[in-house]
Amino acid sequence: MTVARTNFEQAYKQTYQPGRTAERPVPWDIGAPQPEVVALAAAGAFRGAVLDVGCGLGENSIALAARGLRVTGVDGAPSAIREATARAASHGVAVTFAVADAVVLEGYDNQFDTILDSGLYHCLGDEDRPAYVAAIARAGRPGARLHLIAFADELPDGTPGRITEEQLRSHIVAPWMIDELTRLKYKTALTREQLRRTILASSGEQDGPDVFDQLDADEQGRAYLVAWHLVAHLPGDGA
């Protein structure tokens, strides 16, 4: 996989030590599910058996399971799965967490009615995306629905994870059928300035446009990035 599994595992392993509170969480750990995922769940977007692919620290999985859904969360980083399991236990919520390669998803064929990707797709390279799209299609039952959230292209060229509409439409192909493609806000654990420094450091730039200053932020100053929300489904009647 082009997604940096070793780097993700290193970040999780260094940050989330058993029995110790993380001093500085990873940028996507807001300590809660993504608000837009909560809103989707409240609107009935998830049904049946749910796969949270690239589940990370498990907050979305836990929130969905708390609504009575049967949830499986998979991630390539063992330390993330360990932390997600501990968080689910602390909430008293049953979630099946497992380490799995999202590009393969071996052993998960024809099991899920809804698939959530909240922030994994934009971590994959173009060469891995076709295999990933095929893998989640195999994991879905007839009529399964996909909710995919990926960073949009409002940020400057060269920003890691920046996805265009053309990229999404060229990769999310048969057997998937796209129903909707809209934008939403993805909350980060970083302030606007922290986000600016992080993204510029990743892109190798020294300075950037004022787009970072224009980002929305919550009451704690944590910035939101603009993301795509793609909804697609597999052929069939479903459950």
UniProtKB/TrEMBL annotation:
**SUPFAM superfamilies given for it?**
S-adenosyl-L-methionine-dependent methyltransferases
Ranges where the Methyltransferase domain occurs: 50-143
Keywords carried by this UniProt record: Methyltransferase, S-adenosyl-L-methionine, Transferase
In terms of superkingdom, the source organism counts as Bacteria
InterPro entries referenced in this protein's UniProt entry, alphabetically: Methyltransf_25, SAM-dependent_MTases_sf
What biological-process GO terms show up in the record? methylation
Q: Which GO terms describe its molecular function?
A: methyltransferase activity
Q: What is this protein called?
A: Class I SAM-dependent methyltransferase
